[in-house]
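Recall the central idea of this unit: under ordinary conditions, the amino acid sequence of a chain determines the structure it adopts. In this exercise we apply that idea directly, starting from the sequence alone.
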Amino acid sequence: MKQIPIIESLRAIAAWSVCLYHFICTVTGFIGNESVKQVFSYGQYGVHVFFVISGFIIPWSMFNANYKPSSFFRFILKRIVRLDPPYICSILLVLAILFLKTKIGYDYGKQEPVTITGVILHLGYLINFFPNYHWLNNVYWTLAIEFQYYILMALIYGLFISSALSKRLIAYALCFISSLLLLKYRTHFPAYAPLFLTGIAVFQFKCHLTRKTELACVLIAAAMYNFFALGADITIIGILTALCILFFDRINIPFLGWMGKFSYSVYLVHCIIGVAIINILAHYPLTFMQKTGVLLLGILITFGSSWLMYYMIEKPSKKLSSKIRFR
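Accordingly, the structure predicted from this sequence is:
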């Protein structure tokens, strides 16, 4: 499959943006300067960068692998093998840390009770469907949205790649109508379908399935909808991400490209380990320089632990997933 170097760089930027947002803006009492928090609050939109990337890369990989509807279950298995081992490892890490906290008597504030049912629901990315249960990690809700997208893309992929404009229009309409009807359910895929569509539109154009006029129309329609449904910030982030993939796809930034390889692991563990470290140390009176040191410590520990997870868990999972072929 043809590689798109800019994708890894965008993944690295998105993952570490979300990481810094959680470190600086969500740890109570750590950073008091509202101006600083306002700047880093934009890091939360790294999530939406991932959504656009997935909008592009999932059908791109399906197209290059010659996906057929008969390969639906193999496709889902391929995604599970690729993503679930690091995900399950991170769940076990959360449970281990919570168990350790109770044993040492550490007061970590309000904590929803952990139940066996809740843990089982995590395995199917189903927490979003059960409001009485909670995610063990703040970022898991986005993985559920991604998994819903995988299922829906596998089902209607044929509409997006069809040579018939009428079928492609049906696919576009499904994205907008489902989002409009289910917009209030922000923890489910349909609310973000037009955002994913910006990535899908770039995929279609790059695979010569559509022309410039259709690409422009879809991007403009998606941007207009996202502006009113999700807000200006997310709309701008979505369009900029799509344009980067469209025009700067061959740009290779070695360091960011390397960082992007384990961005999924960074995304999974930064709240579990990095935020926990900062949260513990933030309880002590700290000077500006000390806070900077604590932040750097959180970044370094997150960097090391996520690289370790990538090397030991994610990389073997990725290799195993690549062996699953569509028939």
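The chain has one domain: 5-322.
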